[in-house]
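Quarterly update from the structural biology core.
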Amino acid sequence: MENPSRSSLITLPGAIIVAAAIIAIALIWVNKPSPVSNTADQTAAANQPQINLSPVSAADHILGNPNAPLKIVEYSDPSCPYCKAFNPTMVGIMDQYGPNGKVAWIYRHFPLDKPDANGNVLHPNAGHEAEAMECAASLGGNDKFWAFEKRLYEVTPSVTGDTPAGLDQKKLPEIAAAVGLDQIAFNDCLARGDFKDKIEAQYVSGINAEVSGTPTSFIVLGDSVNQSAQDYVANALLQYRVPPNLLYVSDDHKTIVMSGAMPKALVDGLLGTLVGN
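Predicted structure, tokenized:
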């Protein structure tokens, strides 16, 4: 991803902060046409009149109050290093806002395990890991889904040259046992592949919602939410040097699209603006 231009007047400490923010905002891109290259075109692309996001339903994995005035729908890949980096931010957000019922977190699968035009697969184990999360849910309900999700993101190594396959898949039953699931039942579920269709359907729903990389989060605003997010988003674009196609408010002011592992300070400020502290 091309970094925004920087002023030569930025001090060294400021440059370090900016660099850290840019690194944090990184995301894994889906194999799609190159993004627009100039700021004017990016701004135009960001002003999308409609967000084709599947509505949140009882079929979703929801952490927090299902009737929360603000819902964060995250499309994520368990093998994605930027999803791993962003997961503690979401855990912290729910620790802060979940108990008062103001925010709910909805997790949807977007495994990048599809071959590109050259037959290369970015995260070959991501679909299998997503199935493991669904097996946890089938055996232990919503609570075990979220316990397994948290533990998986904690222990999985980032996909790098040293660990190109990410997590050793033999660790999945160990994670299941660590969160209190029966390993034999878990292994049987995983071997059957019961949830391949569900995961593929969520992936397709992400494509339909114009998800172009992981993680991508949609902040869905209820009628009772402070609708003055536009000013905060405009300021955040400058403060954190975020490209405008990675953070924007839909034209109907009902959804904020946030692509990449945004810094926790940015997310905290945004949610504080929307629902208070």
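Strands lie at 28-29, 61-64, 70-76, 103-109, 213-214, 216-221, 247-249, 255-259.
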